[in-house]
Amino acid sequence: MNEYSRKMVKVPTVNLLREQDMGKLPVLDVRNLGIDFGGLTAVDGFSITVGPTEISGLIGPNGAGKTTIFNLLTGVYQPTRGSVLINGIDIKGMPTHKVNKLGIARTFQNIRLFSDMSALDNVKVGMHNEIKCSFLASLLHLPSYYRAEATANQKAMELLDFMGLADVADVKAGSLPYGVQRRLEIVRALATNPSIILLDEPAAGMNPSETTELMHQIRRIRDTFHIAIFLIEHDMNLVMNVCEAIAVVNYGKIIAKGTPEEVRNNPAVIEAYLGREEDDA
Fold this sequence. Notes:
The chain is of the alpha/beta class. It has helices spanning 3-6, 66-73, 96-101, 119-125, 135-140, 143-162, 178-190, 208-225, 236-242, 260-264, 267-274; strands at 8-10, 16-18, 28-37, 40-50, 55-59, 81-86, 89-90, 104-106, 196-200, 228-232, 245-250, 253-258. It is built from eleven helices and twelve strands. Helix 4 (119-125) crosses helix 6 (143-162) and helix 4 packs parallel to helix 7. Residues 1-5 and 9-14 have low confidence and may be disordered.
C-alpha cells in the first residue's frame, strides 16, 4: 500500500479520516454511545467516525466491550444513550434487517454460516436485499424467477471467485476448512452490497499464511468495492499493518485513538494489555 493511501488527517471531531474521504459524509458516525445491562455499564461514551473508504480497527483486552459495540452498531442491541448514524441516518429503534439495508454488514466472532447449504447458496442468502422477484413468481416458477435466479448465481460466483472460493461453490459450508469458512462469511457480507463491513475477529483460527492472505484481501475488498471496513482483531500484526486508524477500548470506554504508530506507543494502551508495573517495595 502506498503512503498516500494510508495518509490520515486530523478533523474537528478528534477522529482521523483518510485524506481522500475529507468532505464526504461518514459512512459510520457514532456519538457518545452507551449501554447498561441492569446496573452494569458495558459501553460508555463511545464515539468514532469512519470515512467511506477507510479501514479502521477496534482493539482491546478480552471483555473490553468490543463485540457489544458491534452489536450496538448493527441493531442487535439498542443503546441506553447516544446515537449511531449509517450514511447519515440514525438507526435508533430499527431492527437488524433494516439496519442492514442502510448499508452495514458484518461477520461474527463465532461463524454463523448455514452448514448444510452450499457455499454458493450461503452467498445467495446474503442477496435478499438485491434479488427482485415476487413470491408468486417464485412459487409458480415464472420466467422472472429464473431470470432473478440466474442473476443471483452469476453475482454469487463472481464474489466467490474474488475471494478464491469458486472451486468450493457446491461444497456444503459445514465441511469446509475453518479458514475457508471465515472467508465465506466475508463473501456473504459482501453479497448484501454494503457501504461498510464489520469484521469480528476475521483472523481467528487462521494460520500465519492464511492471516497474511487475509490482510491482502481486506485491502482488495476496500479498493475494489470502494467501501469501508471496521474490524475487531486480536492479531496485532494484522491490525497494525492493515488498519489506517485504530480505536482502543477498555472496560467499555475508549482509552486511545490514532494511527497504528500512535496507538502502539500509547502508555494507556500498553498498560491495558500488559498491566501497570508495580513499584518496588
